[in-house]
Amino acid sequence: TQSTWGSNETTRTKMSGSTRQIVLREHPEGLPDAQQHFELRTVPIPTLGDGSLLLQSMYFSVDPYLRGVISKQGAGYMPPMELGTPLVSAAVSRVLESSVPEFVAGDIVAAHVPWQEILLTDSQSVRKVDPSVAPVSTALGILGMPGMTAYFGLLHVGQPKAGETLVVSAAAG
Fold this sequence. Notes:
The chain is 18% helix and 28% strand. By secondary structure, the chain is of the alpha+beta class. The strands form 2 sheets. It has a 5-stranded antiparallel sheet, with no helix packed on it.
């Protein structure tokens, strides 16, 4: 669902020079609890620099790997998150300010960024999302990492042949 971070409340927060982020307070040893394991912090809005974009977050992806990286053990292929740092995942955001000509205020982009209302990122790490193609949230699903993993995994790794049986599990996460 769309965060309330894209609301007028965010605009008021931006004017005051601060923004909010969700940080890992404690590594969970079982089911994560929002109050115990996470913290909502207020931090200064970063200043736009050369080659960067100031973004307003709209949607964050909550992918299965996040459960592993918030634990003390990590995800096996990724180290555990450090305590006191913002969660990081794929997100869809609106460009508020840009120091590069390829992006202008109002552009919608996808990037792997911290869970923060207003954030600064390098322009090289984002890709534009065309809202005329599909709802922008699909950049985190079927037109994002999960969809591309399924597409290339099926067609380029699995390479199914005519006459073979293909079973797709909806809960393979």
